[in-house]
Amino acid sequence: MNFDAITIRDIARELHLSVSTVSKALRDSYEISEKTKKLVMEFAQKHNYRPNPMAQSLKKGHSKSIGIVVSSIDNQFFSQVINGMESEAYSQGYNVIITQSHESYDLEVQNVSHLIHRAIDGLLISIATETADVEHLRKLQQQGLPIVFFDRVSNEIDTHKVIVDNRGGAYQATTHLLDSGYKNIAHITSSVTSSVTTQRLAGYVDALVERGVGVNEEYIKYCLHGGLNLDELELAVNELMQTEPRPDAILTASDRITTSTMTLLHKKNIRIPQDIALVGFSNTVLADVLNPSLTSVHQPAFEIGRKATEMLLSIINSKRPVTEFENVILPTELFIRSSSASKHK
Fold it and tell me: Which of 81, 116, 231, 329 could form a disulfide bond with 1, CB atoms 3.0-4.6 angstroms apart?
């Protein structure tokens, strides 16, 4: 939102009119003379005046719409999250407006601005991997916009948050690889600033340390754009393949990184799991039919979306300011398939 846009008060001051007169002139009220209306309208158009949708929404009551920001809707995880959001929103008489950040901070800011101009009643957001500064969201919350974070969250803003047990899921996946005989386990993850990256990396490290396996920093690769940039991901895979000793397994930390890593390994004629095992966080419905079938940490995406929306609507519909917030952590589930077959066989 252009918070520096000219306001009714600015117009009133410049034209030496009352705020009430300007407001009525902009509404084409019969109480205001045609001469004054023309004066106000011409000034407003010249200075790009736009009504404040948040203010209008407060006057009229709820707009009955909520904004959603995800990285991309073609990601299986986020498409399932959106299904949960729509289900809960529609059941309570709300519509949703969906935008995509494509992991870009600038696009995230632009999307949020667009949603504000659509007079949304609240915002559901999973922060882009590029986003380190959340001031654009903090300002909106301070102005009274209800915000709920899901998946990738900010600890700098106090509100409801819905995530999965990222640390536990990564720990379980890494432990499974260790139990299957793999010792040199690499980890390809997203931006170092992302909450999900921090939590999943911690689970990976927990499992290695618990088993007395040293943490090799060369085995940990960060992809700022979360797998959306294939060149970035291919560079990470190439570096791992040149590391000595070469990893015998990879844990990937997101849906897109997981499926893209599998594709890259196939292109390089690296056999899974004979040459390198693969386990990832993935909600793809094709995990069973991939070649080989993919061992994956499954996240309750629909429930994440449903719960986050339920919590947002509870803030929107509260008759009193909400000052106590909840951090909901939903469990993950490891589905073991052929891509991590035991080395002992």
Answer: 116
